[in-house]
Write a structure and sequence with these properties.
single chain, mainly alpha, elongated
C-alpha cells in the first residue's frame, strides 16, 4: 500500500470520527436541553453544525486529493451538510476499495 493511500485512509477515518462526534454531540445536547425545558433556536444549532462540518469536509478534501479524485466534487458535496458528507465519505471509501476487491475476488480465467 502506498503512503498516499495510507494517508487517505487516515483522513477518511478522522472525518468519520469527527462526523459521528458532531452528530451525537448535537443530538445529546438537543435531548438534554429538551428535558430541562430549554428551547434551542434551530438556526443557531444549524449554524454551529455547519461550522463544525468544516473540519470533516477538510479531511474529505485531503483524502480525495491524495486518491487522485476530484476534490472540488467531494469537498463541495460534503460542505452541504452531514448527510452529504456521509454520502461523500461512502463514495470515496467504495471507490478506494473497489479495485482491491476486484483484485481479490477477480474473475477466474477459463
Amino acid at each position: 500500500m502506498s503512503s498516499s493511500i495510507a494517508n487517505a485512509d487516515i483522513y477518511l477515518s478522522r472525518a468519520i470520527t469527527f462526523l459521528m462526534l458532531v452528530f451525537l454531540g448535537f443530538t445529546l445536547l438537543g435531548f438534554a436541553a429538551g428535558n430541562y425545558g430549554i428551547s434551542l433556536n434551530d438556526t443557531y444549532v444549524l449554524i454551529c453544525m455547519m461550522a463544525l462540518n468544516l473540519v470533516p469536509t477538510w479531511y474529505i478534501w485531503q483524502s480525495a486529493k491524495l486518491l487522485g479524485k476530484n476534490r472540488w466534487m467531494y469537498g463541495g458535496l460534503a460542505i452541504l451538510g452531514i448527510p452529504f458528507a456521509i454520502m461523500s465519505l461512502s463514495i470515496l471509501k467504495i471507490s478506494r476499495d473497489f479495485p482491491l476487491l476486484l483484485k481479490i475476488f477477480g474473475r477466474s480465467k477459463k
